Amino acid sequence: MNGRTVAVVGGATTKFGVRATTWSELAQEIGAALFRAVPDLRARDVDSLFVGAAMPERLAFQSHVAPLAAEQMGIRPTRVIQRTELACASGQSAIRSAYAAIASGLSDIAVAVGVEKMNLPSMAEANTAMACVMDRAWDGPAGATAPPFFAMVAQRHMLEHRTTEEQMAAVSEKNHRFANSNPNAQFYEKTFPRDKLLRLPVVAPPLRLGDCSSMTDGAAAVVLASEDVVRQFPGPKAWIRGTGQYSDFHNLAHAGSLTEWPGLKRAASEALEMARIGVRDLDFAELHDCFSISEIVEYEALGLCAPGEGGRFVEDGRSDLGGDIVVNPRGGLLGCGHPLGATGIAQAVEVFEQFAGTVPSARQVPNPEWALVHNLSGSANVHSVMVYRRGRAA
Amino acid sequence: MNGRTVAVVGGATTKFGVRATTWSELAQEIGAALFRAVPDLRARDVDSLFVGAAMPERLAFQSHVAPLAAEQMGIRPTRVIQRTELACASGQSAIRSAYAAIASGLSDIAVAVGVEKMNLPSMAEANTAMACVMDRAWDGPAGATAPPFFAMVAQRHMLEHRTTEEQMAAVSEKNHRFANSNPNAQFYEKTFPRDKLLRLPVVAPPLRLGDCSSMTDGAAAVVLASEDVVRQFPGPKAWIRGTGQYSDFHNLAHAGSLTEWPGLKRAASEALEMARIGVRDLDFAELHDCFSISEIVEYEALGLCAPGEGGRFVEDGRSDLGGDIVVNPRGGLLGCGHPLGATGIAQAVEVFEQFAGTVPSARQVPNPEWALVHNLSGSANVHSVMVYRRGRAA
After folding, report:
1. Chain A interface includes B156 (CB < 8 A)
2. CATH node for B141-213+240-391
3. Which of A55, A58, A63 to mutate to test the interface with B (most CBs of B within 10 A)?
4. Is the pTM of the predicted complex or chain greater than 0.95?
5. I need a surface site. Which of A376, B13, B167, B344 has the fewest CB within 10 A?
């Protein structure tokens, strides 16, 4: 590392769900929420804005969304303004860009915001838009979108490791239970016991409705500050101690094993090495559970359990409160919904609030010091990881 | 500045124009061209990829374009991969992101590539897509797209400063003349004398066809390296010495004067101050001539001439070879075409090749040391500036 140290000093999310708002109204709403949540933040001190948004051109007929978001949030960036796009990991991509800008000296105080409006009057159009995440020329004609791809991962995992539908339901039950203590989650106050999950309609076999994250509208934002100006924010902080990313393939013909994600192994190793800790030092993790099977594969790729034992890991409660590591206390993508560009940023908000001790006790990790956030994108071909440490000073 | 120094060590462009290729074929083509142009570059040494693309979701029905481009180019990023979007300035946004990643220590050798495929079977669809750059809720219903907006700038400049259609034609004539020494330009081997330009059809009064940059397919890429690894590239270099960006407004109701671009003044001042030079030290500049009137306003905002005197500045040859400063020796957006995300990167390729002395003599700036690149986006509401210096060592 050559640059300055960077901390998340606060954040906020809007209510996630089917929202009767436009893209720019969501940007305005998260701006107001952010300034309420971080009272030490003055608009004129924000020199840079990074907007994570996966496909507003298709979903909101709006490009050039970064200056639109700036205006709606009441921010006038004087150093860096841009949107970052990395499909379902667009949010964490915005945070990494903010991190690099601050570490390099280009920015002192930056906001990373994620906004996505996915529910349209015509959901057929929204679903069609989602198809453009895969390689259109080669994988598109074969019908490859996210649910059938992750269904193949699940089928293969069941074949190779005897993973069961009940174990996948255990992921979903856990994350929905956590979401019940998160009023901004899409599925707040909805209960999903395992027997109910196992009776829901099949989306792509073996994945049922409760195994799939949803089409969600929502926004989230965090404030990042350099070590040089962090004294402006006397409250708790989540210091960025490590980050890693790896891009493996795009065309599905080039994918290797469906059930081992070497890109996640590499990205996480790099982030943990940079932070100088091991995976056992983590107190909790926000993992990208776009589908229940994803979280199971991620336990294994991160080395939280042996290859093939992810199903048993969740079934035995080892990723729950009181287990080896708490995974997705926010409620995950399954419980909170998955507004693509907002997800990675909402995960960082959860890290900050867990460190600050401000989340409801039903999901509070006891005295957490280290957290890892993982976003994947596309057909799990790109993996992005951040490692955060709680602290007040640099 | 806290981070490491960064140099552009090579680059390439594809042929710009109406191309019978897909988006991903353009990515493949620029990958091949880049490795031919930079023989010291090994694919395995490229740790990061930044993709500038304005709206592939609409124009190519493809999102998640960064890993697609990586695969097509034969690059497997292990550090950072992302697309950056800032409408017409998406290319320079990718370069700034690469700069920040390298300066911060996240990356050592990065590629910034811009790809845009704008000519579709239905040009009505392409033109409709372009409309999503403006604020759709407020400016869209009023019919605001780029040509009518810049036509208002031209009308106002003519009213305030007696700028003439002949002076705007002088910009277009100069840039098309330079493009005639650039085989990759869309309008290579096409001559546009002023009397011909003044007879072309009107697009939005007073702007005629020759005053407007075109819908163009094309790609461009540069390689950026940190001072720590730059010895791998023994050839000429364009060192990034300054950069600035400013975001002013989005909704047109919040725009100030149409003929003064304070965002450009601020972004350029910041970049020049960081480089510790004045505007008179520049040998040439690549300015964002999306319309002929833009270049005239830019002369004034940069302080190359007094406010209101931009028309006379070009008419008197002061922005031509042998003048005060050479503006757009590459051929500009008017002569080369404007494949949105590729433009800012093609401008950087021109800087590198001018410094290397490898461009045809008809457009070679004599012994250049300093260059400025300017990209604007939207309704000239966001301005992005880079300052480069020629050199071999850091």
Report:
1. no
2. 3.40.47.10
3. A63
4. yes
5. B167
Using a CB-CB distance cutoff of 8 angstroms, which residues of chain B are in contact with residue A1? 104-105
Is residue B305 flagged as an active site residue?
no
**Do the Cβ atoms of A152 and A139 come closer than 8 Å?**
no
Six token digits for residue A287: 């993992």
Domain with CATH 3.40.47.10 in chain A: 6-122+215-237, 143-208+241-391
CATH code, A143-208+241-391: 3.40.47.10
- With H, G, I as helix, E, B as strand and everything else as coil, classify residue A122: coil
User: Could you say which of B68, B247, B250 has the minimum Cβ distance to residue A250?
Assistant: B68
For residue B126, the one-letter residue type is A
Q: What is the mean pLDDT of residues A77-84?
A: 97
3-state DSSP helix/strand/coil percent for chain A, to nearest 5? Answer: 40, 20, 40
**What's the confidence (pLDDT) of residue B393?**
64
CB A247 to CB B67 under 8 A? yes
Taking the CA atoms of A314, A315, A316 and A321 in sequence, report the sign of the dihedral they define: positive
* Per-residue confidence (pLDDT) for residue B301, from 0 to 100: 98
Residues 90-119 of A with CB under 8 A from B: 93, 96-97, 99-101, 103-106
Which band of pLDDT confidence, cut at 50, 70 and 90, is reported for residue A2?
low
Q: pLDDT grade, residue A137 (50/70/90)?
A: confident
Peptide bond into A148 cis (omega under 30): no
Query: What's the pLDDT band for A393 if we cut at 50, 70, 90?
Result: low
Which pLDDT score, from 0 to 100, does residue B1 have? Answer: 52
Q: Chain A contact for B60, CB < 8 A? A: yes
pLDDT (average), residues A158-173: 98
Q: How many alpha carbons lie under 13 Å from residue A77 in its C-beta half-sphere?
A: 34
The span from the CA of B394 to the CA of B247, in Å, is 31
Q: How far is CA A177 from CA A14, A163, A171, in A?
A: 20, 22, 10
Instruction: Assess B265–A contact: CB distance below 8 Å, yes or no.
Output: no
Regions of chain B short of the pLDDT cut 50: none
Q: Are B60 and B29 in contact (CB under 8 A)?
A: no
Distance in angstroms (rounded) separating the CA atoms of residues A158 and A165: 8
Distance CA A382, CA B179 (A): 39
Domain span(s) for CATH 3.40.47.10 in chain B: 6-122+215-237, 141-213+240-391
For residue A319, pLDDT over 70 is answered with yes
Architecture of domain B6-122+215-237: 3-Layer(aba) Sandwich (3.40)
* Residue B271: other Cβ atoms inside 10 A: 23
> What is the pairing mode between strands B109-116 and B218-226?
antiparallel
- Beta strands per DSSP E along chain A: 6-13, 48-52, 80-85, 109-116, 202-204, 207-208, 218-226, 237-247, 284-286, 326-327, 370-377, 382-391
Report ipTM (2 d.p.): 0.97
SS3 (DSSP) at B203: strand
**What does the pLDDT read at residue B289?**
98
Could you confirm whether B338 is annotated as catalytic? yes
**Helices A146-161/A292-302 angle, 10° precision:** 60
CA max distance for chain A: 56
CB A304 within 8 A of CB A313: yes
Q: For chain A, give the percent of residues with pLDDT over 90.
A: 91
